[in-house]
Amino acid sequence: MQRPRVRCKSCTTLNVVLFLINVVVFVGLWTYAFDRDEDVFRRGVMLIGDRRVFGDMVKAFLIATEAASITYPADDLWKFFAADVSDPESRDNYRWPFIDVIFFVENATHVWSQNTWLRPRFEFPRRFVFPLSQRPLAGLKVPAPCDTGLVLRTMFRDLSRCTSRGHSHRLGIGFPRYMTRTVPCSVLTGHFPFVHHYVIKGGFVNETLRLGEMTLYSLVLPPCGGSDATSTKNARITAEKRTRLLTRGYNDTGTQMGRVRFRRGAIINVVLFLVNVAVFVGLYTYAFDRDEDVFRRSVMLIGDRRVFRDMVKGFFVATEAAGITCFIMYGTLLGSYRNHDMIPWDDDVDIMCNNSQRDKLKKFFVTDPKVSRGYIHRGNYRWPFIDVIFFVENATHVWSQNTWLRPRFEFPRRFVFPLSQRPLVGLKVPAPCDTGLVLRTMFRDLSRCTSREHSHRVEVAFPRYMTRSVPCSDLAGSFPFVHHDVIKGGFVNETLRLGDVTMYSLVLPPCPGTVKSASKAAKRK
User: Fold this and answer.
1) Which residue pairs from 312-315 have beta carbons closer than 8 angstroms and sit at least 24 positions apart in sequence?
2) In angstroms, what CA-CA distances link 291 with 203, 341, 447, 450?
3) Are residues 404 and 447 in the same domain?
């Protein structure tokens, strides 16, 4: 009997792709609905390498414009552009990172933006803007309006509230309004550094940069000579009047604005339309995404890394005091070997403990865990957490009790014990004796970096097509990597570098078990 012909072989693939799109959209909206406010802000954090690029761009731009004495729109400014910006066809041949240039116009009394459509509106008396002051930015001193505080309070009203970004300049797309959050900046002080302002004698301002309770540095800035008490009071009254008008439904001229009423069905249609647009833009941009962009998405903030550091420190202090044998393993060991830290795009810590001491370890848990297949599962927890895996040993070998876990952990005792001490999140933690041999056996090629396949923060596994594997050398300009050099006596010199910048070096001793094995092999030859 002749079998029926399949006319559209790609239809099956298309259906699978559409199904995965629906799953991704559902998971994305579900996780976003229960996302913490600080998680919304962390998404747009740039890496150290990107901030260095912006710092160099700003420095070069200011040096060039100051040398040419440019403070307003002039023909001299165009020579700094690679292409003719007056040509409409040449305006799109650029890529992120870039500098936005906005022009201002001035007369004898006022300064205002030439872009009348730009919001918030920039229009101030000259004495609030000139003479320009010098403010810190990206480690530089850059020109800024004379009375920066008054200008910002007039434009943005409440400076104590932080709003997440509404536009991605890297991708050139705007985010829907429902994806932005506005929270008190005090909520984010444990994750981002913030400046605290104190007015001192003579009108000087003491600006102190703090990260949580930790003071990073302080500096004193002079007052603005053109801003006096009367003008400051008048500007504050004008800003308050404008706020009252907008709150009551009037525009700046006092004319009542038309009210827009939305029915529930219209809102649902708008939301569904925005979801479809977001899915399309997300898939389109992902298809043309650079490899380093895939890795940068999951980089944790300084505050999160401090939490992990405290957790790891507390865990090993408690287990060592109780005589429990534990050491870092899997991705955490790989991060220590390759970055002297957690893997930059990873979000969990893997620790392996002796299965015979499991009962001792249980008392460190707040609730009684359910143990299944050698792995501790608990439902009443939230990220961040530590993954605990148990190992079994005999007189000759050590292996993981999790027989289903990959990559497989099974080694002779001399490759694991005695435990060594390796750097991790600024600490010295226990690790297998011959870390390099263990990792090369488990992961084979350590010169390639693979993006994460699972988000422990939201407990979601990523599809295989969303992961990338690239040579680690391609990421050396964005993340610090360790370079290993074997020196005299089998010692290893480990140097941490970010691009061409050497951060530090340390020397680690060889593993006694490996040295003895090598000596025996040499004698046999």
Assistant:
1) 312/349, 312/386, 312/424, 312/425, 312/427, 312/429, 313/427, 315/351, 315/364, 315/386
2) 50, 21, 15, 10
3) yes
Half-sphere exposure (CA, 13 Å, Cβ side) for 134?
Answer: 6
- Cβ within 8 Å of residue 465, ≥6 positions away: none
Calpha distance 516→414 (Å, rounded)? 9
Give pTM, 2 decimals: 0.48
Number of structural domains the chain divides into:
3
Domain presence at residue 73: no
Closest by CA position to 309, among listed 299, 317, 319:
317
Q: What values do phi and psi take at 180, rounded to 5?
A: -100, 155
The owner of tokens 């143990």 is 371
In a domain, 516, yes or no: yes
Same-domain status, 315 and 429: yes
DSSP state of 96: S
pLDDT at 112: 87
Cα–Cα distance measured from residue 94 to residue 100, given in angstroms and rounded to the nearest whole number: 12
State residue 315's pLDDT score. 92
Instruction: Say if 77 falls within a structural domain.
Output: no
Per residue in 24-59, pLDDT tens? 666 665 555 555 666 667 666 777 778 888 888 888
**Packing angle of the helix pair 330-339, 435-443 (nearest 10 deg):** 120
Whole-angstrom Cα distance, residue 454 to residue 446? 20
* Low-confidence residues of the chain: pLDDT under 50: 1-11, 72-74, 229-232, 235, 239, 242-265, 367-368, 372-375, 521-523, 525
Rounded CA separation 390/186 (Å): 41
452: helix, strand or coil: coil
pLDDT at 1: 34
pLDDT of residue 37: 62
Q: How far apart are CA 364 and CA 225, in angstroms?
A: 61
For residues 346 and 338, give the distance between their C-alpha atoms in angstroms, rounded to a whole number. 13
Structural domain of 35? 11-40
User: Can you tell me the distance from the alpha carbon of 30 to that of 16, in angstroms, rounded to the nearest whole number?
Assistant: 21
Confidence (pLDDT) at 32: 54
CB-CB contact of 497 with 473 (8 Å): no
Question: Within this chain, do residues 281 and 322 fall inside the same structural domain, yes or no?
Answer: no
In this structure, the answer to whether residues 316 and 348 fall within a common structural domain is yes
Q: What is the predicted pLDDT for the residue at 206?
A: 93
Answer whether the bond into residue 222 is a cis peptide, omega within 30°. no
Residue 53 lies in a domain: no
337 and 247 share one domain? no
**Residue 208 to residue 197: CA distance in whole angstroms:** 7
